[in-house]
UniProtKB/TrEMBL annotation:
It comes from the Bacteria. Residues 77-103 are annotated as: Disordered. This is SCO5918 family protein. NCBIfam families: SCO5918_fam (NF038312).
Length: 103
């Protein structure tokens, strides 16, 4: 599929994007993201890998539109971790600490 990102034309395919992103570790998702395989990548990271351009040269909208047209699932916001009333993330009930046995 022909697309234009940052005023440069690219010929991209879904298989080509999958191959380009293979072995790339996802950065922390703080905004728009795209699911490629079983991983969620920030849109700017995907754009940087597939275009080899600086992320400041293109918009998230350009990359999101292209990824959607190729059949990838795009997300507007990152997933939210559950937070309790105190603001701390809990993984389970707390167990009291036991003193170490005397020697």
């Amino acid at each position: 599929m022909r697309c234009v990102i940052a005023q440069y034309p690219f010929e991209l395919t879904k298989a080509g994007v999958l191959a380009s992103m293979k072995g790339v570790r996802p950065e922390l998702v703080t905004g728009a993201s795209v699911t490629i395989g079983r991983r969620r990548y920030p849109v700017k990271q995907v754009g940087q890998v597939i275009t080899r351009q600086d992320p400041r040269d293109f918009t998230t909208r350009e990359v999101t539109r292209t990824m959607t047209r190729l059949g990838f699932t795009c997300h507007d916001r990152p997933e939210v971790a559950p937070v309790d009333a105190g603001g701390a993330i809990r993984s389970g009930p707390r167990q009291p600490r036991r003193p170490a046995p005397a020697p």
